[in-house]
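hey so i finally got around to running the thing on that chain from the lab meeting. sorry it took forever, my laptop kept dying and i had to restart like 3 times. anyway pasting the input first so we r on the same page abt which one it is
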Amino acid sequence: MDNQALQQIKDTIASAQLVTIAVSQNPNIDQMASALALYLNLSSQGRKVTVVSPTEPIVELSSLVGIDKVKTANEGTAGDLVVSFPYREGEIEKVSYTIDDGQLNIVVKAGANGLTFTEQDVLFKRGADKPELLLTVGVQHLSDIEGLFPPDSLKDVTIINIDNSSQNEGFGGMVLVSPKFSSLSEQVADLMLNLGYEIDIDGSQNLLTGIMTATNNFQNPTTSYLAFEIASILMKRGAVRSTRPNVPQSTQKQFQPQPRSQQPRQQQQVQPQQGQPRPDDRQDRRDAIREALRSQSQNRQDQPRREDRNNQPRQQQQVPPQQVQQQPQQEESTPSQKPPSDWLTPKVYKGSTNV
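ok and heres what got predicted. didnt touch it at all, straight out
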C-alpha cells in the first residue's frame, strides 16, 4: 500500500466520530480478534465505536478482550424509534398523533372491526444509528450483513473493506483485500502500525491470538513471513503466547485405553508368531538340555583322577567320537524327564589337586 492510500485511510478514520465495525455470521477467532483490536484502538482515540455481528458470539471467543461489547443489532441513540403492534385488515382506520404538555401521543383510530391487540402486543424498537464510517472485517459479501442495517441505509456511508480472502467481492469505497496475508489479525495489525496507531497490551493479545489460531500455531505451510514479524512486535508490547494447543475440536478426542482388568483375558496373553515354538515346547527343550548337562557332569565325576589320566596314554584321554555323536541323541531321548530338585543349587567341582 502506497503512502497516498494510507494517508487517505488515516484522514477518513480521523474525520469519523461514529464508527461501526461489522463481522460476518459465525465469525471465527481470527476475524473477531482483529475486529475487537480495531474497536479497542479507535475507542481509545475518543470515537464512538460499535462492533456488530449477525450472530451471537460462541464460547470459543470468550477469551478475547472486549467480547462483551459485541452486539447483534446496530442500535443507537440517533436512530429512529419504531412502535410495532399486530395489524389485521379492517381494524385500523388511521394513525395520527397529538402533543399535550410536552408528550407525544400516537393515536391509532380503530376501524369497523375494532382493535384486537392489547398493550402487551406493542413493541418499541430503537432504530440503528447511521454510521459515518463502516469497517467490515472478513466480510466477503455486503449481503452477509444486510440484516444489521436497514435497506439503503449504507448508501452514503464510507465503507473500508478489510479482508484476506480471494472470494471477496470488492465492495466499499476503500478496498483493502489481499490474500498474501495468512490471517486477518496480521493484516489489521500491519494496517494499524502503518497508520501510526499505538497498539496496547489488550489489542496485542487479541491480535496474537488471532494469528496463532489462523496459522495453527505458525505450522500451516501458508503462514507468511509477516505473521512472524507481527507476532514478535505484539509480544514486545506484552502479548503472551497461549500454552493451550490450537487443535480443532474434531481432533481433540483421543483414544482412551481400557483398564487392564477390563480387557479380555485372551488379549493379555502373548500369542507366538507363526513359525516360533510354543511356550510348552520351549520348556521341554530346556528340561532336555538340563538333563543332558546333568548326565555329562555325572560322567565327568566318574572319570579317573587327574594324575591317573596324565599317566594314561594320550589317546585314552580323548573322548571317543561315538560319545560326541551320542550326546545329541541323548538330548532328544530324554525330553520328557524333569531335572532333579537340587538342579539350580550351586555346585563345586572337586579336583584331585590340593591347593
